């Protein structure tokens, strides 16, 4: 039974009334913006979710600036985090909410300047009103999602956008360094949304740009890297196990989002070529191996659950899915602790891959039993 502290973070955007569009917009009416603000979500997590988790799991909170946290409500959020014993785990500039033509990479200089200013205000708020909500030992992640760094036209502007992106990131890094240099920068790659094509669509691209920033602008790669988002690797048909190894090999794993596309558990629909479904964490062999990789690397930062309720879930069902996501990772984590690494290595050296499959399948079964046990106690 794992007893070391595990740091899990939950996202403000999970707790929404409904997605709208082709799906209901009000299936969870008490979670509408008028009923449940960002500070209220913190208290809901403390009341409905925290009591159902093992004691060694500590919780953090993730928010977008300026739609979920801003200068007007930051103090209320900081107060709620203090009251509940939770911490600010992640803050991200929500450029996708404002900028439709490339954001900090935009060919339009006025949009580019406005997007850069949004990022700087995000940093200022993290070091200002929200500073007291940081964990004393685990600084928040400043996640930079590429959602606004996209385009829909093959043109020479793509080259210009990439250069603008490097210049903008370098400027933001300098701004943050002047504020204290304590935040962990994490680019979150994604192949699409909300544009058909994105700058920095893959983990490798995110790692590479930090090296370019070091070479071209003198930006240190310390505390710089990637937000490990399982589902985004799955969306593009890449291997999120290898992506994790690559990130760790480059000292680039600064934050983790554990949600899955679901296709590799043989139960849920999803996978390459599908839209971002945001299922919670799944119990499967790949996740157990990733848990083992993180253990061996000594990863001890935030494990985020960037997930959405199902479009038919009421409030209690949505809460239950969040709990299940956290407990699923805990079950994978415990199974990974029991993995006989030496025996697996020996079998691979002997090409006994069928026996390795048996090992992993046995761990999946064990993880499911662990999950069933801790869920009953929740």
Provide the fold topology.
Blueprint: E1 6-11, H1 38-49, E2 57-65, H2 74-84, E3 87-93, H3 109-127, E4 141-145, E5 150-151, H4 157-179, E6 184-188, E7 197-198, H5 203-217, E8 224-229, H6 230-235, H7 240-249, E9 253-257, H8 285-297, E10 303-305, H9 315-337, H10 341-349, H11 353-377
Parallel strand pairs: 1-2, 1-10, 2-3, 3-4, 4-6, 6-8, 8-9, 9-10
Antiparallel strand pairs: 5-7
Helix pairs in contact: 1-2, 3-4, 4-5, 7-8, 8-9, 9-11
Give a verbal description of the structure:
The chain is of the alpha/beta class. The protein has a single domain (6-377), classed as Divalent-metal-dependent TIM barrel enzymes (TIM Barrel, Alpha-Beta Barrel). The protein is 44% helix and 13% strand. It has helices at residues 38-49, 74-84, 109-127, 157-179, 203-217, 230-235, 240-249, 285-297, 315-337, 341-349, 353-377, and strands at 6-11, 57-65, 87-93, 141-145, 150-151, 184-188, 197-198, 224-229, 253-257, 303-305. The strands form 2 sheets. An 8-stranded parallel beta barrel has the order 1-2-3-4-6-8-9-10, surrounded by 6 helices. Strands 5-7 form a two-stranded antiparallel ribbon. β1, α1 (38-49) and β2 (57-65) form a beta-alpha-beta unit. α3 (109-127) runs parallel beside α4 (157-179) and α8 (285-297) crosses α9 (315-337). The radius of gyration is 20 Å and the shape is globular. The two termini are 16 Å apart.
